[in-house]
Amino acid sequence: MHKIFHEKITVLGIVFLLLELGLTFFLGWQKNILGILTLMLLIFTLERLLYSQYVITADGKLLINHGRFAKKRIISLNQVLRVERGKYLLGMGKYLILVMNDGSELGLRPDREQEFLDYLKKKQQHDE
C-alpha cells in the first residue's frame, strides 16, 4: 500500500505567492512585457505549491513529485542514512533533510512531519 504525504504550505509560501500575484497584476495593468514572465512564474509557483507530494511505496521507494513541470525523483529507502531536521530563513520555516549513503542531502517539507518520519522509519525497518 502506498502512503501519500502532501507538501506543507507555509506562510512564507503564501506571502511569496501574494507578492507574485500583486507584481503580475501591476505589470499586466501597465501592459509591460515582464507581466507575462511573472505570470509564468506565478503558474510554476502555484503548480509546485499545490501539487507537490511525497509517496512512500510498498516496495520501499520514496517518490518525490513537485507538480507537472518538475522531474519526478525516485529514491530507494535503503539509500537514506539518516533524517535530520532543519530550519530556513531565520527559523521561520522547518524542513526535513534526508542524508543519503553517498553523502548527498535532500530537503523535504511534508505536511504531517511526525507521521512521515514514523512511517519512513517503519518502512526502513521492515525492508531490512
Can you tell me about this structure?
By secondary structure, this protein is of the alpha+beta class. It has a single domain (about 5-125), classed as Pleckstrin-homology domain (PH domain)/Phosphotyrosine-binding domain (PTB) (PH-domain like, Roll), CATH 2.30.29.30. The protein is about 40% helix and about 30% strand. The chain contains three helices and seven strands. It has helices at about 10-30, 35-50, 115-125; strands spanning about 5, 50-55, 60-65, 75, 80-90, 95-100, 105-110. Strands 1-2-3-4 form a four-stranded antiparallel beta sheet. Strand 3 (about 60-65) and strand 4 (about 75) form a beta hairpin. Helix 1 (about 10-30) packs antiparallel against helix 2 (about 35-50). The longest helix has 19 residues, at about 10-30. The radius of gyration is 17 Å and the shape is elongated. The two termini are about 20 Å apart.
Write down the overall geometry.
elongated
- CATH homolog superfamily: Pleckstrin-homology domain (PH domain)/Phosphotyrosine-binding domain (PTB)
Biggest sheet strand line-up: 1-2-3-4
User: In CATH terms, what is the architecture?
Assistant: Roll
How many domains? The number is: 1
Helix content: 40-55%
Radius of gyration: 17 Å
| H/E series | EHHEEEEEEH
> Low-confidence stretches at least 5 residues in length (pLDDT < 50)?
none
How many DSSP helices?
3
> Which sheet architecture does the biggest sheet show?
4 strands, antiparallel
Percent of residues in β-strands: 25-35%
Structural class, by secondary structure, is alpha+beta
Q: Give the beta-strand count.
A: 7
Overall residue-averaged pLDDT value: 85
CATH topology: PH-domain like
Q: What top-tier CATH class fits best?
A: Mainly Beta
- Span between termini: 18 Å
